[in-house]
Amino acid sequence: MRRQDKQWSGVGGPMNSPAEIVQTFLTRWAEDPAGTMATMVAPDIVYTLNVMPEAILLGGETVGWDAVNAKMMGIREVFDYLVYIPRILGADGQKVRARVELIFRHKASRELLMGQMRTVVTVRDEQVVRVDEYVDAPLIESFMRMFAGGAVAAK
After folding, report:
1. Higher-confidence residue: 12 or 19?
2. Which helix (H) or strand (E) holds 80?
3. What's the whole-number mean pLDDT along residues 94-107?
4. Contact status, residue 39 vs residue 135, Cβ threshold 8 Å
5. Which of 67-81, 99-113, 124-138 has the weakest average pLDDT?
6. According to a count of CB atoms within 10 Å of the terminal CB, is the N or C end of the chain lower?
7. How confident is the model at residue 14 (pLDDT cuts 50, 70, 90)?
8. Are strands 41-49 and 127-134 parallel, antiparallel or unpaired?
9. Residue 18 · residue 92 · CB < 8 Å
10. Cα–Cα distance for residue pair 88/96, rounded to 1 Å
11. What angle do the packed helices 18-31 and 33-40 form, to 10 degrees?
């Protein structure tokens, strides 16, 4: 049951709301991706990105903590995160919508990739269980084709 102080009442007492959990998750991702993946993400996480996997291996759907973690850490090897500003747009039950402003620097070329993405994050038992990201797919695909000659390897 929702309380006025924006906390949810759980079996063990008050819990953070899904929106608060997602804000923390997105903010920590920018600062400490490995720690965030280790502490806030469920083992059965599903991650989707609306970009063709041929352009960047993060594209499509990835299932399971090990696979998602490998891809998320792999993208950090390809890009420096210069700006990553998440803003919560709204929540409907366990699903939270956010917009992220971003500026990434492609490490190999030193070129900047700027824009924003929309994210829908699903929370269960105070853990992130699904992340659906929506970017300007043609922009990302074109950018990566300029430098990669194929898919960007995400370990």
Report:
1. 19
2. strand 79-92
3. 95
4. no
5. 67-81
6. N
7. low
8. parallel
9. no
10. 7
11. 150
